[in-house]
Amino acid sequence: MKVVVVGGGFAGLSAAIHLQDRRHQVVLLERRGVLGGRATSYVDRLTGDEVDSGTHVMIGAYRATLNLLRRAGALDLLLIEPNLGLDYIDSQGFSSLACPPVPAPWHLLLGLLRLRVPWEVRLQAMRLAAAVRLGRPPHGLTLAEYFRRTGQGQAARTLLWDGLATAILNETPERAAAILFYNVYREAFLGRRADSGLIFARRGLGELHRLLGAYFERRGGEIRRRARVDGVDVAGGRVRGVSYLKGVEARDEIRTGTPAVRETIDAEAVVLATPWTAVPTLVPSEWAGKAPFADIARLRSSPIVSVEMWLDRVVVERPMVGLRGCEVEWVFDKGRLHGRSGPPQHLAFIVSAAYRTAPLRNAEIIALARDALLRYFPAMREASVSRVLVLRDPHATFSSDPSSEALRPGPTTPVGGLFLAGDWTDTGLPATIEGAVRSGRRAALCL
Question: Most CB contacts within 10 A, which of 93, 160, 192, 318?
Answer without folding.
Answer: 160
